[in-house]
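TL;DR need structure tokens for one chain.
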Amino acid sequence: MRNNIVRIGLVYFLFFLIAIVAIGRMVQLQFFDKSVRDNKYHIKVTRIDATEAMRGSILANDGRYLAFSTPEYDIGMDFSVPSDTLYDNNIEALADILSKRFHERSKAEYMNLFKTCRTQKRYHKLLQHPVDYETMIEISHYPILEKGQRFGGFKADKVDHREYPYGTLAFRTLGHLKSNRDKPKVGVEAALDSILRGKDGSRPMRLIEHNEWIPDVEETEIPPQDGLDVQVTLDVNIQDIAEKALLRRISGVEDLEAGCAIVMEVATGEIRAMVNMEKRPDGQFTETYNYAIGRTGEPGSVFKAVTLTTALEDGLITLDTEQRADVIWHYDRANRNFEDTYLRNYSTITVRKGLEISSNNVFRRIAAEYYGSRPQDFVNKVVNERKVTYNYDFDIPGMGKATVRTPEDRLWSPSDLPQIGMGYAVELTPLHIITYYNAIANGGVMVKPHIFKNLQQNGKIVKEYGVETIGRICSPATADTVKAALRNVVIGKNGTARTAMKDCKVAVAGKTGTARVSLPSGGYVDRSGRRKHQGSFVGFFPYENPKYSVIVVVWSRLADKNFYGGTWGGPVACEIANNIYASSPQWNEKIEEGSVMPALEAYTEQDAANDSIIGVPDVMGMGLRDAIYTLESKGYTVASSGRGSVVSQDPVAGALIDSDAQSVTIVLKD
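>> reply
TL;DR here they are.
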């Protein structure tokens, strides 16, 4: 009995010792064993991953995509993950398929890279550039990578890539990004970055064995808020028309350094096109700077419309007011002579004719003789009533500041007043200039130019950017008078825009302007006698009921010769106007009655010709545009009268006449 008790006691004592050892070991592991205490799997290891929001799209005025984001993937591999057997048996096959499929490295180069990464047990990107979803799926089935992240070390990090389906069209106006992670600096992308970017979400992650991170379902995930879509006022077709017209004119001209063009809708101020071209060292033109809104300079003769409006509005002149046509005019208040060789063939000249031939002295004298005793009053009217230097906040960053010298300025001299009258001692951007002319076309009401149309979420408009009126710059009657004077610049016998607009198929009114550009060294001419020029044309069309305003400005490098706005800007504006209305459904309504039509280019989108008739085609019942295309595609010239549909034609349909140099007369009625 006593032996049994001893044995039982020994057993209990043994269990007691085991318990003590176990407890001691537990204490040691918990508090003293560094290898266990620091084990990352011993406690819950977490992190917060950002879930990237999808950047909103940029839509054109008609809803076409100008910019959108698509998911792409950076492909990489954690070389510490695959087992030795998996790695050794398949790494050469992986190198071989990557080299043959993507041609970024040779097989040998891949093997050297893999060897280094395996030795260092680190992650490395397998491709230098991201790939699309389909390619990512393809790669995920490659040797080793097919085992996934847990066993093969495969990683595909999603990156939103920015796509611009029209390439460099409106490049500077839109701004360009490679991915949503980039920070835009210019254009629509920069101006509305926070709206387009959206708000990233957050996803709690936890670490499990094999160094794998998985979503932590015990914590709350915050989903991303995708960015809003932005619809802008740009018209893809008009932007393309303006860009091609400008490039056609300035490409290959050695002494030109830059050019810009803006097309704006008269009633709303919506920008339909904004083109900016600057010459690269290789002679090619690209969009690198927004000249349309950022480049300020003395506008020259296009400012004469401001002087004209001011004197008309004050009742000081009419278009028929005459003054002496002094080639050399002496201004007593400045004790200075001003020369104007354009007046050599005149003894007296009207204000209307002065604008037509762009006489500097005519407009110098209007400013000096009517406002010479009160120059500040003239400047105040230019700034506050004409609002030509109104510095509004434009939608995209980079707007230059418009200024006009005043008698209060330290640099003011008495000769500045007549110089302001003809466009010097004033600094304006092309956008400021077109805003003023747009107001004349709009009956004297100035509207703020804008490029943002609305914000959308899932196709629904959540905010609209409406028309914003800056104010009235003159009475409707004065605006009509200035419009008539500007039309005369285009159609007048000696109009400075007559030659540039001779082939224009729609009635345009506007003004040419040529100004020397002040040099950093001071003055307008360097030591070699070279000078830089800013040549402009600004106007609106159609004249009777303006729909669009347009400005084209070109800048020359230092050169010995002059560059005139009528020669360089005018033809571009003419081509823009022609092509807009050649592709417009309003074309039939805009051709003046009784006109003899110049040859039109064939309209590829139309197929109006009736080929079933031999001889003169049958155009009865057609609209003017279709009738012109049908007849001119057969070699005939067209004379038309009336509007609406064709009710008679001479010669009649089917008449057998030689189409060479033959004319067909058509009459249209509503």
